[in-house]
Design goal:
single chain, D-Maltodextrin-Binding Protein, domain 2, 2 domains, 10 helices, 31% helix
Length: 267
């Protein structure tokens, strides 16, 4: 079992237009090796920014069913991995894509066997709801102007889109039109405000606002282009494990499905 930090600071994480803002109330971390969590010190789960809405609902259901709380740090999945490698005291992770998991494995923060495929998502092209322009496929997308897309260097969503475009021989044509963003939520915000005519995002992100509508869905053509989410425990404590196990319960699965995610059947 890995040791963990006992925090004596409060950190509140907000998401505004895809940007993570952290405000710290007290500036001290006590690095004593203690029991990681208890009912008074809930587990801290680092979760992908695209899971904000669904995880907040699941956390409420978890507290209602068990009387226990859970805390979250929402951020881009690759940023999450970097934070943990730098020493951030996460009890567990729920991240998009394999890249952040690979980073954590390489940094000896977890083993490959610790990772579980929990959810899948879909890739879509969105436009502002008030925009009457219409495109129906990727070939037409190539002929448009600027397109907001999560940066493949920072966001797994961007990796999925780049892999898909490369598979279909369109990456070099589309690349000059791409406006890279921090993550899928930032790309969504760019389309929502009309900053760009189109954005490439997860289907669940598109469903989170009425300011955009889906122009068309992009079918995943291989395992490399199917958006997946993975969960892993980083510390072997009962409270963290209880919450991760709750994600596979019928109530949690129903919430995931309500938000447009596809729970993995083996989870």
């Amino acid at each position: 079992m890995r040791s963990c930090f006992n925090l004596n600071r409060e950190t509140k994480f907000l998401i505004k237009a895809g940007v993570i803002v952290a405000t710290v109330a007290v500036v001290a971390i006590t690095a004593s090796v203690t029991a990681c969590t208890s009912r008074n010190n809930p587990p801290l789960i680092f979760a992908a920014a695209s899971l904000v809405d669904v995880m907040e609902e699941i956390a409420a259901a978890y507290e209602e069913d068990t009387g226990r709380k859970v805390r979250f740090n929402f951020a881009g999945s690759n940023l999450i991995a970097n934070q943990i490698i730098a020493g951030a005291p996460a009890n567990g992770v729920i991240v998009a894509g394999w890249t952040p998991i690979h980073k954590l494995i390489s940094a000896d923060k977890m083993s490959q066997d610790d990772a579980t495929h929990i959810l899948s998502n879909r890739l879509v092209v969105v436009r502002q709801s008030s925009d009457d322009r219409s495109i129906n496929d990727l070939e037409e997308l190539v002929e448009t102007a600027r397109i907001a897309m999560p940066d493949p260097d920072t966001a797994p969503a961007g990796e999925y889109f780049e892999a898909l475009f490369r598979e279909r021989g369109l990456w070099e044509q589309l690349k000059p039109q791409i406006i890279p963003t921090l993550d899928a939520r930032a790309a969504l915000a760019a389309a929502s405000t009309g900053t760009v005519p189109y954005a490439l995002v997860y289907q669940t992100d598109a469903a989170s606002t009425q300011n955009v509508e889906i122009a068309f869905e992009i079918e995943s053509s291989s395992d490399a282009t199917e958006p997946k989410y993975y969960t892993a425990l980083l510390h072997d404590d009962e409270a963290s494990q209880a919450f991760i196990e709750f994600l596979a319960t019928p109530r949690a699965v129903a919430i995931f499905e309500h938000h447009g995610f596809t729970p993995h059947p083996s989870h």
